[in-house]
Amino acid sequence: MTPVSPELEPHLEQAAQTVRDADTLYIGAGAGMGVDSGLPDFRGKEGFWKAYPPVAKLGLAFSEMANPRWFDEDPEFAWGFYGHRLNLYRETTPHEGFCILRKWEASMDGGAFVYTSNVDGHFQKAGFDRNQVIECHGSINHMQCVENCGQEIWSAAKCEVEVDQSTLRAALPLPTCPACGQLARPNILMFGDWGWDSSLAGTQQTYHDNWLRQQKGRKMVVIEIGAGTYVPSVRIQCEGLAVDYETTLIRINLREFDAPTDNVSLPLGGLAALQHIDAILDDMQ
Q1: Backbone angles phi, psi at 164, to 5 degrees
Q2: What is the pLDDT of residue 231?
Q3: Measured in whole angstroms, how far is the alpha carbon of residue 257 from the centre of its chain?
């Protein structure tokens, strides 16, 4: 376990006490949650380009690459990018921090719910109930028809994409819609995306809202991990929920760690922070 500076210890103690006192857990997770699993950090052009050198040669930022227009203009390039990510997420094992959160969930009467902007499906892979996860930006593990032909979102479990690592281009045949045979795309909310099918996210939102209603009268703790300000969906959600439920927000973020007044700020990576909090909880037994 990575050692921490002495000045951080009181904040970790406060976080541990807050978790211990809670009987329901709300988890918000951004891209920083996956870094400890070995997933690339797309922060800034340099981080993105380091992960995808062929894109660096074109000078494209993440927001320009993660755009639905490529499925119209250059499908092999679009699927090279998303096919590589699909394969990477499948091959990567979620880090120990997911197990720690599951352990805390199991100890609480109200259980837990996850609100994440990550599209990798790693919370479900780590054993969280799929009906207690909302993926606000969609999931790479589900597909939709580019033509919106009426086919419902389907699983990407049988989708196989071969990618040339040197060019980031996918080999034919590309994934297609089972209903109309036209090109398929991941069910991910991309930048400038007016064609995203939000029906699955809508179903998840219903489970989310029902779960929150069931938590009335319980003491909730909100833990936000690796959620930045560039796309602030998770931060906004967690801050708002902490206010609405009059509870504590524990913000874990290596760079953008400042939490609102009277909450807990931890300038650590997700795995390190969870390990330290869990160790303190074990000592409290």
Answers
A1: -80, 110
A2: 87
A3: 17
Structure tokens at 222: 């909100």
CB-count exposure of residue 121 (10 Å: 0-12, 13-18, 19+): buried
Pick the catalytic residue: 11, 137, 142, 276?
137
Longest dimension (CA), the chain: 61
Phi, psi of 3 (to 5 degrees): -65, 155
HSE value, Cβ hemisphere, 13 Å, CA-based, for 200: 26
* Residue 252, beta-bridge partner list: 225, 266
In the predicted model, residues of the chain with pLDDT beneath 50 are none
Here the tokens at position 268 are: 């650590």
Residue type, position 249, single letter: L
User: Within a 10 A sphere around the Cβ of 130, how many other Cβ atoms?
Assistant: 11
Length of the chain: 285
| Sequence letter at residue 107 | S
User: For this structure, is 276 an active site residue?
Assistant: no
pLDDT, residue 161, reads 98
Name the residue with tokens 């700020």. Answer: 265
Nearest to 83 by CA among 152, 144, 164, 153: 164
Distance between CA 188 and CA 117 in Å, rounded? Answer: 10
How far is Cα 107 from Cα 211, in angstroms, rounded to an integer? 17
What is the pLDDT of the chain when averaged over all its residues?
96
Chain centroid, CA 115 distance in Å: 8
Asked if 112 and 190 touch (Cβ cutoff 8 Å), the reply is no
